[in-house]
Amino acid sequence: MNTITVAAAIILNSSQQLLVVRKQGTDCFMQVGGKLEPDEAPEQTLLREIQEEIGCQAQIQQCIGRFETLAANEPDHQLISYVYLVELATEPHIKAEIAEMKWVDVGQKDVQLAPLTTEIVIPWVKEYLLVSV
Prior knowledge:
two-stranded antiparallel ribbon; globular
């Protein structure tokens, strides 16, 4: 199975909603982030992709870890994701290849989400919110 390596952002708003985006020509909403360039550290990739996709400067708050899931939009591909909790310096807005952006509640069921979001991110956010309250 082919692999894709990405860096992905967990971005929460003051209402504890999660920011997800849908790229043009795809059905699944996913974390802001993208593929690593050759010789690029995941943290560099993440900050670059946040700027490209939602036009924000950002600060990495915490490394969540390295995870493996199925890719959302590439059949028969394994996704290796470096996931980080991120704080945005400004309000996000759609740029680059993003078709749609939304804030979702972690329990929301009416949005088609990528495997990384449903299997890794949402369980982590639920736990994080319990601990940080």
